[in-house]
Amino acid sequence: MCYNCGCQMPDNDMGNPKNITNKTFDEAAKAAGQKPEEAKKNALELLQKTLGQKK
Hints:
mainly alpha
């Protein structure tokens, strides 16, 4: 999905490159010297924390 809109299409930016896609995670992971899966895991952990959820 663009991860933020909920369309459930992880590679579709819905015509707006500001939407979060797998490409976003790929680029962020590369910048941090990580694999995309690690960047997604770290993002998930922070989202859970900021939303007050437990792991």
